[in-house]
Design brief:
Shape of chain A: flat
Strand content of chain A: 5-15%
Strand content of chain C: 5-15%
Oligomer: heterotrimer
CATH class of the largest domain in chain C: Mainly Alpha
CATH topology of the largest domain in chain A: Fumarate Reductase Iron-sulfur Protein, Chain B, domain 2
Largest sheet of chain A: 5 strands, mixed
Shape of chain C: globular
Helix content of chain C: 40-55%
Number of strands of chain C: 8
Largest interface: B-C, 41 and 44 residues
Number of domains of chain C: 2
CATH superfamily of the largest domain in chain A: Alpha-helical ferredoxin
Structural class of chain A: alpha+beta
Number of domains of chain A: 3
Radius of gyration of chain C: 18 Å
Chains: A alpha+beta (221), B mainly alpha (127), C alpha/beta (260)
Radius of gyration of chain A: 23 Å
């Protein structure tokens, strides 16, 4: 065994090979993920972890599948973030007034910036909320585009805002009411509806597995 | 009673105001535009804080106060009465009383929602 | 380097002017265009919180202090430390932060915001009415097309005048809006309740006092013969229902439509 580091999982000490991700390290010492692990590639946001390091007051957060273990790391998995998800009809929501009716608590933002500091994606989360509050839907949608909905911001917010749900609503509103409609997309949808590809799909559906595999490899080449 | 005694102390800590300077002239109450809605007048609130009477925590008066400072600028003893009201609200909030549910329910029913109204109301009625 | 005129200020709009009170911003900017006043919006700014925090909870000053830090950065670029607000409540909060917050509290806030530069207290917060006064009411007279002579009652409310340390005029007998109204060809009408609170955020809880005050304030103005009430506060406008922004009236008087 090569070099190792000491980590503490929910207070218990373990020795693990260096260079592992937190997720691999947890599995190495015997934990099995039955929740809180998804794509294992940094996209789905399911494996949120919070941790502190030896001699450092800062509370860190990251994705277990993307963060490498360090010596003296105290960590815990956050498999789920509780958050109310109100029902709404996107076509009826257009302006800041409508958004405030669904999520009035965004008016509680203190501009403390804790959400921004905690975001494993490095997003300007506080500015997302502040943009919504002043009705700048475009800026909010663009700033939050890379959100993977891990929910850490919402666990740390002193104003109890659920940023990731609010931001998703804003992106939906932006797409529905503000983004330029794509002519190409509309044309393609029309083609599909008119059955232009129907024959081809039906042919593919009837193909044997070997033939499909051969076709797939051919396309990938 | 110990916990009762604490009210004067805690109000002092939160507001920085010395309520014991008050000599009950009543100018704060005569200036206040909201007294019709209040169960206790502003000068009575100050008196109760002096006595650390926990009746201030169940009075509606601090929740009606809109921090307009008409009392504050008129106090001959230099007490910022609005700050005392704020401290009583904070004391109530820190002890678990909030107007959160009532607020959110109202917001969802209101036709127009000026940001300034939501922001201010949340600050004043919730912790 | 931006080329700017003689009258240039940094500008903090506040959330409401970008949303519910858009008319307050658009009319102000139009007036500025006519008079040759440059309001340069901060590149980044944050909600002021609406109400100045009166308790020991320093966290609630963060948004305003953060905006003042952004103003200090911007001031180097445009060479003025004057930050203008139009909304009365933003003026009150930012003004109290810049003029009243204790040094030790600023230090604590700076320490907490380790991701920002420190706020060093160099910003002067001004209300747009003060800017117009500096510009000169007499000079504004030259831009007036027609003496409309409407009987206009200026409603000040609380946050422009109190506390006195940051009040833009006498806290009990203000004149600044009357002087402006007179300069733009109106017939200003002072009234007894012009400095009384409108009930403020109490309307969020449907408190009866707001409705009572609304009636009293409107009646008080009408008794003095007022045909119109003006304000600079979106929340006063919301609560009074029958008021317009003083900047909208200015835009009319200065021939905003003619100026395109």
């Amino acid at each position: 065994m090569g070099k190792t580091v000491r980590i503490y999982v929910m207070g218990r000490e373990y020795e693990v090979p260096e260079g592992l991700t937190i997720m691999k390290a947890l599995e190495y010492v015997g934990y099995r993920y039955i929740r809180g692990a998804g794509c294992r590639a940094g996209f789905c946001g399911a494996c949120t972890t919070v941790y502190r390091k030896n001699g450092d007051y800062k509370l860190y957060s990251g994705l277990a599948c993307q963060t490498t273990v360090e010596d003296g790391m105290y960590l815990v998995q956050i498999p789920f973030v509780p958050a109310e998800k109100p029902k709404y009809e996107v076509s009826e929501i257009k302006d800041v007034e409508d958004i405030l009716r669904v999520y009035p608590e965004i008016a509680r933002c203190l501009s403390c910036n804790t959400c921004t500091k905690s975001c494993p994606q490095g997003l300007e989360t506080m500015d997302v909320i502040q943009s919504i509050l002043r009705g700048d839907i475009k800026r909010a949608a663009e700033l939050s585009f890379d959100c993977i909905q891990c929910g850490i911001c919402s666990m740390r917010c002193p104003a109890e805002i659920t940023h990731y749900h609010v931001a998703q609503l804003v992106r939906r509103v932006y797409g529905k009411h503000y983004l330029k409609k794509s002519k190409e997309l509309e044309r393609r949808i029309k083609e599909i509806e008119e059955g232009k590809y129907q024959e081809e799909i039906e042919r593919l559906m009837k193909l044997p597995r070997e033939e499909l595999e051969r076709l797939y490899k051919e396309i990938r080449r | 009673m110990n916990s009762v005694k604490e009210i004067a102390k805690e109000v002092k800590l939160i507001s920085g105001q010395n309520v014991f300077a008050c000599y009950q002239c009543g100018r704060c109450s005569s200036a206040c535009p909201m007294t019709e809605e209040m169960d206790l007048l502003p000068n009575q609130i100050i008196r109760l804080v002096q006595m650390s009477d926990d009746a201030v925590l169940s009075s509606v008066t601090p929740w009606i106060c809109a921090s307009c400072l008409d009392c504050t600028i008129r106090c001959p003893r230099g007490i910022d009465v609005a700050k005392v009201m704020e401290a009583i609200r904070q004391l109530s909030i820190r002890r678990g009383i909030e107007k959160r549910e009532e607020l959110v329910r109202n917001f969802k029913e209101m036709d127009e929602l000026p940001q300034i109204l939501l922001v201010s109301a949340f600050r004043k009625y919730t912790g | 380097m931006i080329l700017l005129g003689k009258y240039r200020y940094m500008y903090y709009p506040g959330c409401t002017l970008k949303g519910w009170a858009k008319d307050l911003e658009t009319s102000t900017l139009k007036v500025c265009e006519i008079l040759g006043i440059d309001l340069i919006e901060l590149d980044r700014w944050y909600c002021c919180g609406g109400v100045f925090e009166l308790s020991d909870n320093l966290m609630r000053h963060l948004g305003a202090v953060r905006s003042l830090i952004k103003a200090e950065e911007k001031s180097k670029e445009i060479g003025t430390g004057d930050l203008v607000t139009i909304c009365s409540m933003c003026y009150n909060v930012l003004g109290r932060i810049s003029f009243q917050l204790k040094k030790e509290d600023i230090e604590k806030i700076n320490f907490f915001m380790d991701d920002e530069k420190d706020y060093s207290g160099k910003i002067r917060v001004k209300h747009f009415l003060e800017v117009l006064k500096e510009y000169g009411f007499n000079k504004i007279r030259n831009y007036v097309d027609e003496q409309m002579g409407i009987k206009v009652a200026p409603y000040y409310g609380c946050t422009l005048l109190r506390p006195e340390e940051i009040g833009i005029d006498d806290s009990q007998k203000p004149r600044i809006m009357e002087e402006l109204l007179e300069a733009i060809g109106m017939d200003p009408v002072s009234f007894p309740m012009q400095t009384v609170c409108c009930g403020s955020y109490n309307s969020a809880r449907g408190i009866k006092a707001v409705e009572t005050l609304r009636k009293k304030i409107l009646e008080s103005a009408k008794r003095e013969g007022a045909e119109l009430i003006v304000t600079s506060c979106p929340l006063c406008k919301y609560n009074l229902k029958e008021a317009m922004y003083f900047t909208e009236l200015m835009e009319m008087a200065l021939g905003g439509a003619r100026h395109g």
